[in-house]
C-alpha cells in the first residue's frame, strides 16, 4: 500500500508525533497501511485485509491516537515544509453521516447534547457534519473545524484564521462568509478580504483576479473526498472524524 519512498517520508513524522509507551508499536508500517486502507476505502474495520495485520490493532491504534490528537500533530509536522500565505482560502462542506455514525456514548447528557458534542446534526441534506477548512495558497489544508450539519460556517471562520502561523495577504471565501464584522476582523489582522457580498447587501470590493482562485480550495475538498471515509462520515465521535480529516490532509501534503 505504501511504497518504500512514501514510508521513508511518513515514518519519521509518525515516530515524532506518536505517544511513547514502554514498548514500541508492533509492525508500525503495516498498521499504518491498514489504517490508510480502511479510510481510503470506507470499509468496516473487520474488512481490513489479513495481510495488513489484525484489524483490531489498526482500529485501536487509530481511535486511541485520535483521542490523543496524534493526527492533528502529524498534520502540523508536514506543514513545516512551508505554508504559503499569499492567499488563504476558507470553505466548508457538508459530509453525510452513515447510519453507523450515530450512537456514541451520551456521557451523562441528552441525545441532543451528545450530537452537538460529536458534531452531528440534521439539515436539509440529511444527518451529517459540517466540516470547515482553511487552506494555504497552494490548496493544502492548514486546519479544520467541525460542527453539526445544520450549523453555519461563519462562526468557525475566526478560530480558523487564528490557527494561521502568520498574517496572509488575502483571505478568500464565498458568500457564506459575507459579514461586515468578519471583513473588519480580517482588515484588523492586516490582511485583505476577497469575499463577495450577498444579494441583499451593499456591494463590496472583491477583486476577480483574487476571487477566481477560490477553485483551489474546492479542488482540495475534491481530493480529500476521494477518501471514502471523508466523503461519508463513519466515525461516531468528532475526535475520530477529525483524525480522518487530518490524516487525509497530511497525506495530501506529502504528495504535493
UniProtKB/TrEMBL annotation:
The protein, known as: IS5 family transposase
Family matches, as InterPro entries: IS402-like_dom, Tnp_DDE_dom
Insertion element IS402-like domain location: 2-74
Taxonomy of the source species: Bacteria, Pseudomonadati, Pseudomonadota, Alphaproteobacteria, Hyphomicrobiales
Source species of the chain: Microvirga arabica
Region feature Disordered, mapped onto this chain: 100-123
Residues spanning the signal sequence: none
Domain of life: Bacteria
Record-annotated Transposase DDE domain positions: 171-255
Amino acid at each position: 500500500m505504501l511504497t518504500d519512498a512514501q514510508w521513508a517520508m511518513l515514518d519519521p513524522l509518525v515516530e515524532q508525533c506518536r505517544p511513547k509507551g514502554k514498548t514500541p508499536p508492533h509492525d508500525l508500517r503495516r498498521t499504518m497501511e491498514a489504517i490508510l486502507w480502511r479510510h481510503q476505502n470506507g470499509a468496516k474495520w473487520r474488512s481490513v485485509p489479513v495481510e495488513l495485520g489484525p484489524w483490531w490493532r489498526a482500529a485501536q491504534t487509530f481511535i486511541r491516537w485520535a483521542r490523543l490528537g496524534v493526527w492533528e500533530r502529524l498534520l502540523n509536522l508536514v506543514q513545516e515544509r512551508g505554508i504559503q500565505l499569499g492567499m488563504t482560502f476558507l470553505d466548508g462542506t457538508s459530509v453525510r453521516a452513515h447510519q453507523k455514525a450515530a450512537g456514541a456514548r451520551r456521557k451523562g447528557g441528552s441525545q441532543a447534547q451528545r450530537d452537538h458534542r460529536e458534531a452531528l446534526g440534521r439539515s436539509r441534506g440529511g444527518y451529517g457534519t459540517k466540516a470547515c477548512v482553511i487552506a494555504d495558497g497552494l490548496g493544502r489544508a492548514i486546519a479544520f473545524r467541525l460542527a453539526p450539519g445544520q450549523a453555519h460556517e461563519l462562526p468557525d471562520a475566526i478560530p480558523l484564521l487564528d490557527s494561521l502561523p502568520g498574517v496572509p495577504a488575502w483571505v478568500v471565501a464565498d458568500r457564506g462568509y459575507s459579514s461586515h464584522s468578519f471583513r473588519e476582523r480580517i482588515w484588523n489582522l492586516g490582511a485583505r478580504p476577497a469575499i463577495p457580498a450577498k444579494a441583499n447587501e451593499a456591494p463590496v470590493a472583491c477583486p476577480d483576479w483574487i476571487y477566481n482562485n477560490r477553485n483551489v480550495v474546492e479542488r482540495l475538498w475534491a481530493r480529500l473526498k476521494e477518501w471514502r471515509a471523508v466523503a461519508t462520515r463513519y466515525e461516531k465521535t468528532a475526535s475520530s472524524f477529525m483524525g480522518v480529516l487530518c490524516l487525509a490532509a497530511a497525506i495530501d501534503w506529502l504528495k504535493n
